[in-house]
Fold these 2 entries.
Entry 1:
Amino acid sequence: MTTTITICDTCKREGWDETTHKTDGELMADLIEAAASDTPVKTRRFSCLMGCDRACNVTIQAEGKLNYTLGQFTPTPEAAEAIVAYATLHADSTSGQVPYRDWPQAIKGHFTTRHPPLQTDE
């Protein structure tokens, strides 16, 4: 089961500077992709996770595991590295649940939702 980080590439934080020619979500995606390049975690971009009030948003998902939505990040290398570090712990977990004591400090306070795994039986 591969853990995937989905990054909203249309996120724009309050005060977004359009002169950068990239959305905050695109900047965050660039940083997360770089941080995840040598890890077992996959990344993908998606245009609109509908969490505009909490931009920048990401999801951490894997089949058969708890899935999470996180938001209200500033696109910085520290935030990206913490997201990837958490996703790596998620990948190593059988259920997707990571003990709070193991969470990287930079993701604490950023969790928005937790979703149960989809049932695979009928």
Entry 2:
Amino acid sequence: MNARDEILARVRTALAGVPDTEVEVPRGYSTSAEGVDVVELFAERADDYRATVRIVKRSAVAGVVAAELREAGVDILAVPPDLPPEWLSETTARILPDAPALSVEDLDGCGGVLTGCAVAIAETGTIVLDAGPAQGRRALTLVPDVHVCVVPATAIVGTVPEAIARLDGTRPLTWISGPSATSDIELNRVEGVHGPRTLIVLITK
């Protein structure tokens, strides 16, 4: 018997004799953010998480992307193969499409990655990727040091329940709330340990 089987056996033993009845779960929590400017709230919360947030016109995305990459010192940029080409029309960075899939060494050599998103949550300042259009696979956004994410205003919802309703739970979901960060036992914050240390969010309207 391995450790997993032993733990499950103990759980079954502990639950022996307990009636197998359904428990009604209360669902009275708020499922929407009424009367809230979700774009403004998302920008505020994402900024609280130390992301760099810009609200830009869709027609200005290419110029802002180029400026942010230049400011961040990104010379080599990884991108999903289906990224809208117009987003890259003004950058001078070397573009590495993830098709065929880039190796870990290639990804490690990239200074940044540019993606879209599936949905964003105003209440928590969270971006969710699901490997859908313009997002790429999970590794693409975990290895490079800078992540630039284009978030259409139409992708922003107020609450987590609203986001869950839009997402397919069978897809690989990556939830991002600010740059990758952790704290040691003395609560000293360290960024970039488990993913990008810099998150740049471009909200398009």
